Amino acid sequence: SDWGCFSERFNWCDNLTEVSPWLYYIFYVLVFGFAVSVMNIAVTTLYSEIIGPRRQGTYQGYFQSAGSTGRMFAPLITSYLYSGFGPKAPWILEVVQICTIMGLWIVFHKKMVPMKIEESDSRTSSKEEH
């Protein structure tokens, strides 16, 4: 069946297996209704802890700008990949990105700690330090 795929436009339509719309609806609600919102809260909290007492507003603005830039370019990239190569290409890109992020997370997990600035004791004089 051509439902959802235009075989006269895309030559990869004939090789697709049909997926139940109910499976799509359920996972769409779970991923976008639950997982994305929980992930955004967790990542924003982790980022603010790592920033520490620096200029939170500025760094959170950079963080949000990077996310907005990604949300601007991702549809262009995935639609290009989907149109040219079928649905497997965007999924492969997504899996590669997730594996890369998880790998970086594992490598740098010990560096992701809250920033602490040690306060100097103002009562000590230069004579006591020597």
Q: Report the β-strand fraction as a percent range.
A: under 5%
Q: Mind describing the biggest β-sheet?
A: none
Describe the global form. elongated
Summed up, the domain count is 1
Rg estimate, integer Å:
23 Å
Kindly report the average pLDDT value. Answer: 83
Uncertain regions spanning at least 5 consecutive residues: none
Q: Would you report the number of β strands?
A: 0
The helix count comes to 4
One letter per element, helices H and strands E, the order comes to: HHHH
Distance between the termini: 85 Å
The class by helix and strand makeup works out as: mainly alpha
- What percentage of residues falls in helices of 4 or more residues? 55-70%
Describe the structure concisely for a colleague.
It comes from Strongylus vulgaris (Blood worm). With 130 residues, this protein is mainly alpha-helical. The chain has 4 helices and no strands.
List keywords for this structure.
4 helices; mainly alpha; elongated; 66% helix; 130 residues
Please tell me about this protein's structure.
The N and C termini lie far apart (85 Å). This protein has four helices and no strands. The protein has one domain. The protein has helices at 21-51, 56-85, 88-108, 126-129. With 130 residues, it is mostly helical. The protein is elongated.
